[in-house]
Design a protein that fits this description.
171 residues, alpha/beta, 6-stranded mixed β-sheet, 5 helices, Nucleotidyltransferase, domain 5
Length: 171
């Protein structure tokens, strides 16, 4: 997997999170998106983190993956970039991600990472990573309709596609 940050470290919301008072957690708004050309196929993810005047854009890619994995990876990597506990509003256009982390994951854990139909949970590795990251923060998960003109979602989508393009240029 490749990953890049497209803004300077001085514009890092996680840096803001480390310098603020312990009394009030830093508020961070995150927009995430994943993209895949073919499903499975080459994929990318993008995330924008904004805290006050600080903004950081992240993206990465994988040569052979699925859209759901890239949607999840965007959220995992965005939350991983925060260096201390934050109040987060995380926007995703993936109902799979939003419902998985807010409704389904605790049942999967209780059943030993099995679905209600007793089948192995798909993308268990990323669900575990997302659960671990979500426990580090106070997160409000919000869904936005994809490709509907939402500025954050459109930019996250562009970052995901830029990551795929860059990966394919390097080949």
């Amino acid at each position: 997997m490749s990953q890049s940050a497209s803004t300077p470290e001085s514009q890092n919301p996680s840096a803001a999170a480390t310098s603020e008072s312990k009394a009030a957690p830093t508020r961070v708004v995150i927009h995430t998106d994943g993209a895949c050309r073919g499903n499975p196929g080459p994929g990318g993810w993008g995330a924008i983190l904004v805290s006050g005047k600080h903004r950081k854009e992240l993206n990465g890619s994988e040569a052979q993956t699925t859209n759901n994995r890239m949607e999840m990876m965007a959220a995992v990597e965005a939350l991983s970039a925060l260096t201390k506990r934050c109040q987060v509003v995380l926007w995703t256009d993936s109902e799979y991600v939003k419902n998985g982390i807010t409704k389904w994951v605790h049942g999967w854990v209780k059943r030993g990472w099995k679905t209600a139909a007793k089948q192995p949970v798909k993308n268990e590795d990323l669900w575990k990573a997302l659960l671990a990251q979500s426990e580090r923060h106070d997160i409000e998960w919000r869904w936005v309709k994809g490709h509907s003109g939402d500025e954050g979602n459109e930019r996250a989508d562009a970052l995901a596609n830029e990551a795929i393009d860059e990966m394919q240029r390097r080949r």
